[in-house]
Structure formats: structure tokens, C-alpha cells
Design goal:
The protein is an alpha/beta fold. It is built from eleven helices and eight strands. An eight-stranded parallel β-barrel has the order 1-2-3-4-5-6-7-8, surrounded by four helices. It is globular.
Amino acid sequence: MRIGELHGRGRPVFSFEFFPPKTAEGANALMATVADLEEALDPDFVSVTYGAGGSTRDRSVEVVARIQRELDTTAMAHLTCVASTEGEIAEVVERLASNGIENILALRGDRPQGEGAVQPHPTPGGFAHATDLTEFLASSWQVDIGGACYPEGHLESTSAEDDLKWTKVKVEKGAKFLITQLFFDNKHYFDFVARARKAGIEVPIVPGIMPITNVAQIERFTKMCGAKIPQELADRLHRVQEDPALVMATGIEHAIKQCRKLLEGGAPGLHFYTLNKSHATRSILAAVRRD
């Protein structure tokens, strides 16, 4: 099923995101984790992130295809354009299509280490931006295309207005839904949605939720993407950071409250960044669905 159709059913759409493991054994373990969440929570779709290089790219395609085929659930493939030619991207999309994948999240991806931080440089015969990749996909394949958006602004944007302008271009080029970068203060999400609607962006804007299970890890992630941890939450986490169980409990409690307020405020669904683990996501979504 296409994700656009899922959003047309009039109820929240819940989804989980995983990353491809590095080994065949890891792939089997991931399938078990996905199957566990699938059986317990019946998500509307599952997505798999993309590794642009060689064997990692192949495993991304393999895992997303296995999820859709073996678990009989809607799967969305992530696809990046950095460090790839148009021909290489087309080959991957054809492989996805041949495996029945009808949903793709179009992303630029992280530039190779050592490249300058001002502007990306496309691989010769490739694309520099997610907007270019979105247009390419929309021109040649019958797939539902998603895009990323950034409630607190993209790290490389010169302003919130500039960031919103390029988000709108993604939609104009063919993105049918948007998934946000992680955030922990709902005000950022609701402010962004209000600005997006005012700018004429009408597609679903789905909040991306990352359960906090490790203090050092989440501080590293937020530094990389520019998201901020509210001071009150940061203080609570630091008070318990030496106790993994209390860190997880604190993170789950915050995420449950966050998700409830998002849905009450009209968010069209929730997209969970699972980090390939099931416990926190399972606890959060189970609590939200009991409401």
C-alpha cells in the first residue's frame, strides 16, 4: 500500500524506522525485532535507512524487500543521492520496484568525510540535493515519495525562511508527505507546521520521534542534527545518567507525553526512530494507543 493512501484513511499513521545491519546475522536479528513489533503493535508501515556504499546499499535493499515480502507489511525504502550517479540511483530504484516497494523517502544523505561544510558538490552525473532526487523519482517511477523536514531548521540553512522555501520545493517536485527530524519540544513542531501551512505546504507533516535510551548517544545525535533537548529534560537525564534503567524510564515517560500532545494537537501520525530496538518504542506506542 502507498503511504499517501494510509494518510487518507482519517486516522493516525504509525511507523517505525530501522537501519540496515552490517552482517547476515544482524539482518536475521533485525527481522526478529521487526516481526516482534509488527505482531505486537501492527504499524502502518516500516522504513529502512540507506547506506550509499556497496554492500551496505545492497543490504538496505535486501532488508526492506524482506520486510515487505516476509512480514507482509508496507515498507518504505530510504534513498540518498550523495556520492551516486543518476544511473546508480536508477538501478537501485528498479531493484526496489521489482521487489514491490512503492514508497521511497528521498534524501540527500551525508556527504563523504572531508568535504567542505558550506555546500554539497554532486558526484559527476548525480544530484546535489534531495529536491533534485525527488524530481528524478517523480519523473520516472510510480512511487509515493516522502521528504525530510526540520522543525528547528536544517544545520546548513541560512534562515528558517530559506529552510522552509526548500521544503516547499520538495513538495512541488513530488513529495507527498514529510517526516520531521527528531525534536523534543512540541512547540518546534507546531510552529513549523503553522509556517508550512501558511506557505502553502498541504501534505501530511509527520513528527519523527526518537525515544531517549542513552544520554551520551542522544547528546551526540542532537549535536549532529541541530536539535535541542529542553533544559528541564536535560537536567532530569543528567541526574539519572549513571542508571541505564532510569534513563530509559525517563526517556519513555517524556516520549509518551510528547506523543499524546502531538496527536491531540492534530499530528497525522508518529514516525519512531527505533535504533533497531523494540522495548522503548513498544512501550511508548502501546501507552499512546491505550488513550
